[in-house]
Design a protein that fits this description.
By secondary structure, the protein is an alpha+beta fold. The chain is built from 15 helices and 29 strands.
C-alpha cells in the first residue's frame, strides 16, 4: 500500500515494543493516492472503510477501525467485520465539520483463537484437555491484568480461577458465555497489535459543500441599467429574486478596485471609452481612495464601502442565504503589490513586468504573480491572508478563478491554512483544463470543482462522464458543481437550442449533481454570441448590462419549480447516488436517485434534442427498489403535477422540448386496500 506503513505500537501497560508488524494490513479503501490526500465526506455521514487483514498461521484475527479529530488524543473505535477472503470492513460516523484521521489496528486474538481450538478438540473427544484449560485460564487472567476497570479485573480473575477448577464440559460452556466473550473483546491483549501509520485523513465538510444552488450576478449590473452601475445597496432586488427562484448561494465576481492602466472597453476592446467600467478581473487600483491600499482587501469605491458590503452580507444571511466571492489572483498594473512588491511578479529582460498572455490573446491589464519567486513564502502567506480577511467579514465560500494556472502546492498550503482555522470554508475550483489537473486540484483541497458538464450534450458522453464522477474513486474527493453557463462561456447548445435548450440544461444541472449554479441571464435565455465563439456578445465583464429581469420568455418559474423539487426530495440532495437506466431512444436520457432507505425515489427523463419531440420506452430498475418485476406503482411528475400509473419495468415516455422537455418523477409504490388503490410515501 503506497505511502502507508504498519507498526506494532507500544503496549498499554508494560510498554512492550514490537518493532515489526505481526499482522498484515493492506489494500485500504478508500484511500486517495495511498493516503497522500484526504477522503471527503459531509459532516454526519458514515464512511465505510475496507482493508485486507490477515496473519500467518491459523490464529483468529481481530481488528478495530479507529478515528478522531486531528489534534484530539482519544480515539473513537468500532470492531471491523470480516467479509470474505481476508477482506474486512468497518464504518465510522464523522459528526462534525472538521478534519479527521483514522487508523486500523489488528492483532492475533489469543482468546478467540484458543476458544476455537478448544471447541474443536472438545467436540472431537480429545482427552485429556487439562493443559488447554490452564492455557485458557491464563489468557483470561492476563486480560484481567490489562483491564482498566476494577470490576472487570475482579470478574476476569474470578472466571480464570473457575476455569482451573472445572471439567472440560464446564470450560467449554464458560468459554462461550456472552459475558466472557464481551469482556475478552473489550480487554483483548493488544500488546502485539499492528497499526497503520501515518494516519490517513478525512475531511468532513458542511452540508453546503454537497447541496446548494448558486446564483451568480455582477453587483454593478444588479438593477439592469445599461448606462450606469449599481451599488451593494442596490442588490437586494436581485437577491430577493434569486431567493424566490430557490437559490441559496449568491456568488459575486470580483468586487475589488479595477485598475486604470490598459483598462479594456466594451467587448474586450483595447480602447476604453469614457464611462467604461473596466474588467473586474483586472484587480487593484492604488490611485483610488481605499482603506487598505486598493488591492484584494478592498471593494471598488463605485460599489460602496466595506461597511456597505458587510451590510449586504448580513442581509443575505437574514434571507437564509450565503455569499460566495470570486478569489481571482490577478493584479492590474495599478495594484499596490506591483508598487510595493515588484519581486512577486515576472520581469522581462528590459526590467518591465510581464503581463498575462494566452497567445494570440494578450491581457495587458493583468500581471500574473510569480508563485516561485525568491520570497515565495511571504507571497503565499499574504495571499492566504486575503481569504482570512474576507472570512472575518462573513464570507465562507470562495470560487477560485483559474486555479490550474497556479502551483498545486500553493493551493494545498493556502486551503490547509484556512481550513485549519475555519473548516467551514468552501472552495470551488474553476479549472476548465486537463482532467488530471482538475483531479489533483480536488485532491489538494478544493471542496467543489467545475466540470465538463458545460460541453457534455449527448447521451453516451453524459453517461460516461457522470459515471466516472459518481461511481469511481473520484467520488471520494471530487464534487462536481455544474454550470450550464458562465460569464466566460455561452455554449453552442444554448446558442442554437433556444428556450428549450435552457430548460433541458437547467434540469440536467440541478439533478445530475446535488450542487449547481447559473450565471444571471440564464433565466432570461440570453444567448447572443460573439460570432463563431462560445462567448457572450456585449458581455457584462466589459460594460454595464441592461436587462428586463422579467422579460417575456423567461424560465424563472421553471427554475423555481426545479429548485423546490430539490429541496423537497432528499434523494436529489445526495451526490453519489446517481444511476443511469436504459431508454431505448438515443435522444432520451433516463436516470435516477434514491435514498439508502428507498423512501425517496426520483426518476428523471430528459429529451436532449431541443428541436424535436421524442418518445421512448424506459426501463425502471424495480429490482434496485426491492420490488417485484410485475409491480404496479405511481410516477408523479413534480414539474407538471401529472400522475401516471405504471406497471412492470418497461414503460413509455414522450417529451416535447417546447412544452415538456423533461419529467422529474417521484416514484411511489401502490398497495391494494379495500378494493381500491392507495399509495404510501
Amino acid at each position: 500500500m503506497a505511502g502507508m506503513s504498519q507498526r506494532s505500537p507500544v503496549a498499554i501497560k508494560d510498554r512492550m515494543i514490537v518493532k515489526e508488524p505481526t499482522v498484515v494490513i493492506e489494500n485500504v479503501q478508500p484511500l486517495i493516492d495511498g493516503g497522500r490526500y484526504p477522503v471527503k465526506v459531509i459532516a454526519g455521514d458514515s464512511l465505510r472503510i475496507e482493508a485486507d487483514i490477515f496473519k500467518d498461521g491459523h490464529d483468529r484475527v481481530s481488528a478495530l477501525l479507529k478515528w478522531r479529530r486531528v489534534g484530539d488524543v482519544a480515539w473513537s473505535q468500532t470492531a471491523m467485520t470480516p467479509l470474505e477472503n481476508d477482506r474486512w470492513e468497518g464504518v465510522m460516523t464523522l459528526p462534525e465539520n472538521a478534519i479527521y484521521e483514522f487508523t486500523i489496528e489488528a492483532w492475533g486474538d489469543t482468546f478467540f483463537s484458543w476458544q476455537e481450538e478448544f471447541r474443536k478438540k472438545f467436540q472431537a473427544g480429545v482427552s485429556p484437555l487439562q493443559s488447554e484449560i490452564l492455557e485458557g485460564a491464563a489468557i483470561v487472567e492476563q486480560a484481567g491484568k490489562l483491564a482498566a476497570e476494577p470490576a472487570d479485573q475482579a470478574r476476569l480473575a474470578e472466571i480464570a480461577a473457575l476455569m482451573r477448577q472445572s471439567t472440560p464440559e464446564e470450560v467449554h460452556a464458560i468459554a462461550h458465555r456472552p459475558e466472557l466473550e464481551a469482556l475478552m473483546t473489550v480487554w483483548a491483549d493488544r500488546r502485539f497489535s499492528t497499526e497503520l501509520t501515518p494516519y490517513p485523513r478525512v475531511v468532513a465538510d458542511r452540508e453546503a459543500a454537497r447541496f446548494a444552488a448558486w446564483y451568480e450576478f455582477f453587483p454593478r449590473s444588479a438593477e439592469g441599467l445599461p448606462d450606469r452601475g449599481s451599488t451593494f445597496r442596490d442588490c437586494l432586488g436581485r437577491i430577493d429574486d434569486a431567493r424566490a427562484m430557490g437559490f441559496d448561494v449568491i456568488y459575486f465576481p470580483p468586487i475589488h478596485p479595477i485598475g486604470y492602466t490598459a483598462r479594456k472597453g466594451r467587448n474586450n476592446s483595447v480602447t476604453c471609452e469614457p464611462g467604461d467600467p473596466g474588467v473586474p478581473y483586472a484587480i487593484g487600483n492604488r490611485f483610488q481612495k481605499c482603506p487598505n491600499g486598493g488591492g484584494h482587501k478592498d471593494v471598488a469605491p463605485e460599489l460602496g464601502t466595506l461597511k456597505d458590503f458587510e451590510w449586504l452580507v448580513r442581509q443575505i444571511r437574514k434571507r437564509g442565504m450565503e455569499v460566495a466571492l470570486d478569489f481571482a489572483l490577478n493584479c492590474s498594473p495599478d495594484h499596490p503589490y506591483v508598487h510595493e512588491h515588484p519581486e512577486w511578479f515576472f520581469t522581462r529582460p528590459d526590467g518591465t513586468i510581464k503581463y498575462a498572455e494566452n497567445p494570440p490573446k494578450k491581457y495587458e491589464d493583468v500581471y500574473p504573480l510569480n508563485y516561485w519567486c525568491e520570497n515565495w513564502r511571504e507571497l503565499w502567506d499574504e495571499l492566504t491572508s486575503i481569504i482570512l480577511f474576507w472570512v472575518e467579514r462573513g464570507v465562507k465560500i470562495f470560487r477560485v478563478d483559474n486555479p490550474h494556472t497556479k502551483p498545486v502546492a500553493f493551493w494545498e498550503y493556502l486551503i490547509g491554512k484556512v481550513q485549519e482555522k475555519h473548516p467551514d470554508v468552501i472552495f470551488l475550483s474553476e479549472a476548465f483544463t486537463r482532467p488530471k489537473m482538475m483531479k489533483v486540484l480536488a485532491k489538494a483541497g478544493f471542496t467543489q470543482s467545475y466540470t465538463y458538464f458545460t460541453w457534455r450534450n449527448h447521451k453516451q458522453e453524459i453517461i460516461d462522464y457522470f459515471t466516472e464522477l459518481t461511481q469511481t474513486e473520484m467520488v471520494h474527493y471530487f464534487r462536481g458543481n455544474l454550470w450550464p453557463n458562465t460569464p466566460d462561456i455561452l455554449p453552442y447548445y444554448l446558442q442554437t437550442g433556444g428556450r428549450p435548450a435552457f430548460m433541458v440544461r437547467a434540469v440536467l444541472a440541478a439533478t445530475l449533481s446535488s450542487v449547481y449554479g447559473i450565471y444571471s441571464g440564464f433565466e432570461l435565455c440570453e444567448n447572443t454570441p460573439v460570432p463563431g465563439r462560445e462567448e457572450y456578445l456585449d458581455s457584462e465583464k466589459y460594460q454595464f448590462k441592461g436587462r428586463d429581469w422579467n422579460a417575456e420568455g423567461n424560465i424563472k418559474d421553471y427554475i423555481t419549480r426545479i429548485n423546490r423539487i430539490r429541496r423537497e426530495n432528499r434523494a436529489l440532495q445526495e451526490y453519489a447516488n446517481l444511476r443511469f437506466y436504459h431508454a431505448e431512444n438515443p435522444n432520451i436520457l433516463f436516470f435516477g436517485k434514491m435514498t439508502a432507505s428507498r423512501d425517496n425515489i426520483i426518476l428523471v427523463a430528459v429529451n436532449l434534442d431541443p428541436f424535436h419531440r421524442h418518445s421512448s420506452f424506459v426501463h425502471v430498475p424495480l429490482h434496485e427498489f426491492g420490488w417485484m418485476e410485475n409491480e404496479t406503482y405511481q410516477v408523479h411528475d413534480l414539474l407538471t403535477d401529472e400522475r401516471y400509473i405504471w406497471n412492470g419495468s418497461k414503460n413509455y415516455v414522450e417529451l416535447d422540448p417546447h412544452h415538456t422537455p423533461a419529467h422529474i418523477f417521484r416514484v411511489r409504490r401502490w398497495i391494494a386496500r379495500e378494493n381500491d388503490f392507495d399509495y404510501y410515501q
